[in-house]
Amino acid sequence: MGRRRKIEEVDGFLKLTIKVKHQVSGDEKDFIQTLNHSLSPQDLKFTIEDDLFCAYLAAFDPDSFRDILEDARRKTGITKVYEREGLSDPVSSLLEEILSIGSYGIRYGKRIYIGYADERKVSDRKEKESTRGIHYYTRDHQFSHDRNPIPKGRENTIVCGDSEDVLRSFPDNCIDLIVTSPPYNFGMEYDQTDDGVDWNAYLDKLFRVFTEGIRVLTYGGRFIVNVQPLFSDYIPLHHLISSFFMQQKMIWKGEILWEKNNYNCKYTSWGSWKSPSSPYLKYTWEFIEVFCKGDLKKTGRKEDIDITDEEFKSWVVAKWSIGPERRMKQYDHPAMFPEELVERCMKLFSYKGDIVLDPFSGAGTTATVATRLGRRYIGIDVSEEYCATARERIAKERKSGIQSNLI
Ligand SMILES: C[S@@+](CC[C@H](N)C(=O)[O-])C[C@H]1O[C@@H](n2cnc3c(N)ncnc32)[C@H](O)[C@@H]1O
Questions:
Q1: Partners of 6 in the beta sheet?
Q2: Which atom of ligand 1 is nearest to the CA of 190?
Q3: Which of 99, 136, 140, 160 has the fewest CB atoms found within 10 Å of its own CB?
Q4: How many angstroms separate the CA atoms of 32 and 2, rounded?
Q5: Ligand 1 pocket, residue 337 CB under 6 Å
Q6: Which atom of ligand 1 is the closest one to the Cα of 363?
Q7: Is the Cα torsion angle 136, 140, 145, 146 positive or negative in sign?
Q8: What is the dihedral of CA 59, 63, 68, 71, to 10 degrees?
Q9: Ligand 1 pocket: which of 381, 384, 387 to mutate (most atoms <8 Å of CB)?
């Protein structure tokens, strides 16, 4: 049928649109008229506008709608017409689309899609926001709008070194996006670093690297930190990190809950078994904290956006169910994040061609995904061994990209 779907708000309705390739027939117009006849126009109505089938949606009861639809089909014989012409029914596609979007509530048995703002308990919301001050903690920041080039020879490289030192040689405002998972001080067996030091020393070092990261980010650039707190030490690392970024006048854009569904941790170590004395709380998820420098908006060219409608709709819901990375043995790294997690961050928060940095690059997951998605990358890690793994992975990714382009 060659459809393109679109949703927008028009005159107090959600307008869902499907473009059809075939010539709209009189039978179809009769069918839409018959269908509308049985619907309450203030809740739902259908129109044909040139080659567009549109649904204007405010409220909807799926069960009674299905009955009405069947009735209209029977009365007009439209199903036979579509079968004869080898076409699929655009109203079925619109119904699928309606069912896939979330309503915000139910009233008198109907799902409600519009009027949320009117129902809100808070009036004059904008005015109150301005009195309170949104992201008030970033007031009087001194971030510059200038943009500088990255140092010569650093584009698309994996650099072996301490990221605090390496980044010192970078100018301010030259990186679009940072995606990283730092060491968590859990006592992991990393190749070069001691991952189990005094918490103050750990945090001092981490925050010095973050300070450099913030400095090299461009205005509107995003800093994304994947973090798993060490619950057994009762250190809310995700909160400490967020407070640090806010003190640096970075906007806390939000927190994504990365549900790993790793059930292992659900069934071991109970603390005080079956007693309120000191039960353990268990977590099958990690956190992804997202910060913006200077502005929530990041400018870029429309043609450099590569996220699809479906990806956008699904990923802005800030709970991502992604299994943990399963190839850590293969890459000989103990704490990798999965490529899918990085792909979502990159498509949701950056444009093609952007420069992406990972200051704790490990086996090079960020750089590998950046290569696949047409971003430029810089990865930094203290371990020569991990850097070598990262370079190999990227070379493979590049090769498979070239091959798939040749096919
Ligand atoms: C959690 S791992 C990151 C793994 C990576 N996300 C991946 O998918 O492979 C943290 C990494 O930080 C590196 N590291 C620790 N301290 C560092 C520092 N000061 N500068 C650069 N890298 C460091 C470690 O060698 C380790 O590979």
A1: 17
A2: 25
A3: 140
A4: 20
A5: yes
A6: 9
A7: negative
A8: 170
A9: 381
CA of 380 to the centre of ligand 1 (A): 8
In angstroms, the CA 110 to CA 30 distance is 26
Please identify which residue in the block is written with the tokens 């079956």. 274
Whole-number pLDDT of residue 108? 81
pLDDT tens-digit map of 171-202: 999 999 999 999 988 777 788 777 777 899 99
104 to 56, 112, 115: CA distances (angstroms)? 16, 6, 9
What are the backbone dihedrals phi and psi of residue 78, each rounded to the nearest 5 degrees, phi first? -65, -30
Fold entry, domain 139-406: Rossmann fold (3.40.50)
Q: Is 393 in the pocket of ligand 1 (CB under 6 A)?
A: no
CB of residue 223 inside a 6 A radius of ligand 1: no
- Residue-level pLDDT at 128: 85
If one counts every other C-beta atom within 10 angstroms of the C-beta of residue 158, the result is: 22
For 25-72, what is each residue's pLDDT tens digit? 999 999 999 999 999 999 999 999 999 999 999 999 999 999 999 999
- Binding site membership of 341 for ligand 1 (Cβ less than 6 Å): no
183 lines ligand 1 (CB under 6 A): yes
Nearest-angstrom CA–CA distance, 198 and 347 = 36
Indicate if ligand 1 lies below 6 Å from the C-beta of 154: no
Q: How is residue 137 written in tokens?
A: 């903690």
Beta bridge partners of 266: none
Query: Of ligand 1's atoms, which has the minimum distance to the CA of residue 205?
Result: 19
Q: Where are the domains of the chain?
A: 5-119, 139-406
Q: What DSSP string runs through 98-155?
A: HHHSPPSEEETTEEE-S-HHHH-S-SSHHHHHHHH-TTGGGTT--------PPPTT-T
Q: Is the CB of 226 under 6 A from ligand 1?
A: no
Q: Is 379 in the pocket of ligand 1 (CB under 6 A)?
A: no
Tell me the CA–centroid distance for residue 182 and ligand 1, in Å: 6
Q: Which two tokens stand for residue 21?
A: 């390739």
> Ligand 1 atom 21: the closest Cα is on which residue?
381
Are the C-beta atoms of residues 143 and 249 closer than 8 Å to each other? yes
